[in-house]
Amino acid sequence: MQDAYPKIQHHGAVNGVTGSCHQLWLTENDSLLIDCGLFQGAESSGAGAGQGDLAIEFALNSVRALLVTHVHVDHIGRLPWLMAAGFQQPIHCTEPSALLMPTVLEDAFKVGIKHDKKLAKRYVQRASAQLQGHPYKQWLTLLKREDLVCRIRFQPAGHILGSAYIECDVHYPQQNRTRRIIFSGDLGAPHAPMLPAPRAPQSADIVVLESTYGDRLHESRRDRRGRLKQVLEQALADGGTVIIPAFSIGRTQELLYELESIIDGAAAWQQMPVILDAPLATRFTALYRDLKPWWDAEALKRVTQGRQPLAFKQLLTVTTHAQHQSMVNRLAHTRQPAIVITGSGMCTAGRVVNYLKAMLGDARHNVVFVGYQARGTPGHAIQQYGPQQGYVELDGERHNIQAGVHTLGGYSAHADQKGLVGFITGMRRWPEEVRLVHGDDGAKATLAAELQRKAKEKAKPLRVVIPN
Questions:
Q1: Which is deepest, 8, 259, 283, 442, by most CB within 10 Å?
Q2: Quick one: 79 and 101 in the same domain?
Q3: 193 with 259, same domain?
Q4: End-to-end CA distance of the chain
Q5: What is the reported pLDDT for 47?
């Protein structure tokens, strides 16, 4: 049937929060791909929508373009496999994402495929040739035929720099029929530093909505800053290190911004170093500084006041592996309080593992989680068992947890339940269908119930679907 289109097929982020990949079928022979992300943690093996197999398991002959919501690897990490499968169509994203993406792709290639600089560079050059960056809020026509017109628009999502939710208008002139489908990507919290808050769309027929924190509310920015200050005060008193595992893009820069604000207003902390021990995060921090035109008004005001939110004087960067080993050894064996931001964000690999091995067994130190920890990751284990002084396995060895473990939900780069519900209820014309993806089962079920409650309250005919 002609009116069976558009329809949506999900290739990832169905049974968890990673591997985002959705196919919007416009006709029997035309489709768009929205994101093509990597599975992480426990989601990287087992059954379900491409999990455990990085090869692209769906045909690409109908795909006219790849639309990218943002450049986190759980949204673009399978791009090498997509290209290996023969994908040669345009890759559309926002202008900031287009500037950030080559660095992400190069690192993902070297970590996930082969640590070969020449090969990685060749792959990035090929991907960059397909890459097209676009301004926010401007319609872009992708297809224009007698039977089909499809245009898209990127809107600010407030998740990381360059992030967007995507509005797709699909028009069938011969049927005199138009449908608007929205893919949320990852929506940011309204008080995220440096980025404008996402605003609800005007209208939609179908929304594919993330649900990462669909079952909880975040702390306010004031509360989270207060709790972070308490941990820093404890570190000062104990002579310990505050280890913050953080993702290279977005979370690291927001933390630096927040720490600059805290330190600027507290003379006692002027000598406490903030150590950025993450070469990739350091590169992205430099890119963030170059992308000031996309900062929000508050961040730009700080710059006009002569402050440097991402390059303050207490900030030290560690680049080489030798410097990293020396820093771990020094902080583990001296009583110098310090703040260390390092990757990876879920403690699955990278330099954070060495800090954890050296410091988890010492009560002087503290680990602060500021982002989602997927099931099956060491970060999730520390978060779950740390408060009970349990243990975590790192590189096959058991490490007892004596260090303090804290989770600051307010620093999440994802919208909470209130933000997700508001994305739907804030529309002038509500969608008839919301499809919940990118969340654990409990978060999706709780969010679905809340959306249905709101719809009943407003007498709106809303269908909430949880794909499987």
A1: 259
A2: yes
A3: no
A4: 24
A5: 38
